[in-house]
Amino acid sequence: MRVIRSAVAAVLTLLAVCGGVAAQDIKPAGDGFRAEAEPDLLGRRGRAIVGWLYNDRGVAYTNVRVRVDVLDSGGRIVGSGEAYIYGNVPAHGRSYFFVPVPTYADRYRVSVIRFDRVEME
Q: Largest CB tally within 10 Å, which of 39, 60, 95, 98?
């Protein structure tokens, strides 16, 4: 019982420290992509933003690199991180991303900074 209380207290502390940031539906740079992003509050790999990158196009992409900008209340960038999406982003599908960041905030901007089209023969 003591372990459960400690775990609940830890989660509540994390939520209080991070301000209860909710998932954001963001239109990233590059037509045909959109993202859902939120802080990974329970992750054991350090601070990170996680989410799904949606591909609204009829073509699959590989080597997709995303950038997450951490924004303060005035919209200024206070931190950022970049990471490749593991595997391909299928046509009309989605792929999960994990991007380490130096800090959490109330808002995040997700951008697709590079990708290659999957060519089928």
A: 39
